[in-house]
């Protein structure tokens, strides 16, 4: 067990608690593995050919995705192995940070995680809106149904789903649907991309833009690499797994980063191979094929996004349900349902408004990776492990973890600058509530 020094114990006013309105210690490791896999194979994968491969090229993109997977697996396993320090389970990321550092870092971690999850949820609503608009323009070209309208519809559907799913463990059968939907749009994107690539002339794989813009887009793409693999809520997901929690979480993580990553690689590489530097940031807008096939793929992307959003909104739901929920008994009692309608509905309304206001999906991915995924997944994970295991680590091990802390801190800063620049550039190109 890790031991904190006396000063840290004096500063620690917040005790990590297992008290929660949601279900914990209930799910087998493979269900947790599918939760993780649902996250990395969400409809966001349809954006990686354009947002990762185009600015990095073949060498940078392939090597970057592999290295990002390796570093992400390692960092997530560090956090997983800290789940039971201090003689109790830490079922929230902020509880773990608060146990190790104290009150200030507890609130800082909660703030970073909230920003991370809020922006991911906002991106999901943008994705769902894009899928709806893609279906519409397959049949009509009058431009009557604009992207902001589609985003509002998507936000409403996400809200209806959230009202009926009380907690993360309750997804169960929905994870099966999510996997099916993922396979539909991934296989469709892969097959149609391969078909287009075989029949089309040679593609241009050069990295577009001026020298300066290439630098910023490359740094932004690095943030997207990190975003692709990480949830920023590993302790919350680990809280749902049955004991032995560390061993079972390790199984789930290995599943995520081996079998779970294959669909991501397939659609990302096929999409870039087929269209080169002209690849769209939403792959299904680039592919050619029967209208009914593209409709099915976009519908699957929409439905999977509704399910995946619930995963990344669950820490906020858990906090609101635990702190402010008034209902007792069944999660489906009228009182509890009304509470979810009001509270979750309000939260998703804000998400939907921001999504419609600034529907720049690639920029959201970059900024999310820079501001929160880098610090939560790499900087904080390595430093927490250093502090918790400081008496058990050799000098080379300490040097390795410190190099990760410093290196990823610099990357996070550079990625944040690049992402903000991208947003400013796009904000000049497109007006608010843009119909992209």
TrEMBL record:
It comes from the Eukaryota. GO terms for cellular component: membrane. Residues 29-419 form the Amino acid transporter transmembrane domain. Signal peptide: none annotated. InterPro entries: AA_transpt_TM. Pfam families: Aa_trans. GO terms for biological process: amino acid transport. The chain crosses the membrane at residues 56-79, 114-139, 145-166, 173-194, 214-232, 253-275, 295-317, 337-358, 364-385, 405-424. This is Amino acid transporter transmembrane domain-containing protein. It comes from Asparagus officinalis (Garden asparagus).
């Amino acid at each position: 067990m890790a031991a904190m020094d006396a000063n840290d114990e004096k500063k620690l006013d917040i005790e990590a608690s297992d008290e929660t309105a949601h279900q914990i210690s209930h799910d087998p490791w493979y269900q947790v593995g599918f939760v993780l896999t649902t996250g990395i194979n969400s409809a966001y994968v349809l954006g990686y050919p354009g947002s990762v491969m185009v600015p990095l090229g073949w060498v940078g993109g392939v090597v970057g995705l592999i290295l990002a997977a390796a570093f992400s697996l390692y960092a997530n396993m560090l956090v997983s192995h800290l789940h039971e320090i201090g003689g109790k389970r830490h079922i929230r990321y902020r509880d773990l940070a608060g146990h190790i550092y104290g009150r200030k870092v507890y609130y800082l971690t909660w703030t970073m995680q909230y920003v991370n999850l809020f922006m991911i949820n906002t991106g999901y609503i943008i994705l769902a809106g894009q899928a709806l608009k893609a279906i519409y323009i397959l049949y009509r070209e009058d431009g009557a149904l604009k992207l902001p309208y589609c985003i509002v519809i998507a936000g409403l559907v996400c809200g209806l789903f959230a009202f009926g799913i009380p907690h993360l463990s309750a997804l169960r059968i929905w994870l099966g649907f999510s996997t099916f939907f993922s396979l539909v749009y991934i296989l469709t994107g892969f097959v149609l991309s391969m078909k287009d690539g075989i029949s089309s002339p040679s593609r241009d794989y050069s990295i577009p833009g001026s020298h300066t813009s290439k630098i910023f887009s490359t740094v932004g793409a690095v943030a997207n690499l990190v975003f692709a693999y990480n949830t920023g809520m590993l302790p919350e997901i680990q809280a749902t797994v049955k004991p032995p929690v560390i061993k079972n979480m390790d199984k789930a993580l290995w599943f995520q980063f081996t079998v779970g990553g294959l669909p991501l690689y397939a659609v990302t590489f096929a999409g870039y191979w087929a269209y080169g530097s002209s690849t769209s940031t939403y792959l299904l807008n680039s592919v050619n094929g029967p209208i009914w096939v593209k409709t099915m793929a976009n519908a699957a992307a929409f439905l999977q996004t509704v399910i995946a959003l619930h995963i990344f909104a669950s820490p906020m739901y858990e906090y609101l349900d635990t702190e402010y929920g008034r209902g007792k008994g069944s999660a489906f009692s009228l009182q509890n349902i009304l509470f979810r309608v009001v509270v979750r509905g309000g939260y998703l309304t804000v998400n939907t408004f921001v999504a419609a206001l600034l529907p720049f999906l690639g920029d959201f991915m970059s900024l999310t990776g820079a501001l929160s995924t880098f610090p939560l997944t790499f900087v904080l994970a390595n430093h927490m492990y250093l502090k918790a295991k400081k008496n058990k680590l050799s000098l080379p091990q300490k040097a390795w973890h410190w190099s990760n802390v410093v290196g990823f801190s610099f990357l996070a800063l550079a990625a944040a600058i690049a992402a903000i620049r991208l947003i400013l550039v796009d904000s000049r190109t497109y007006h608010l509530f843009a119909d992209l």
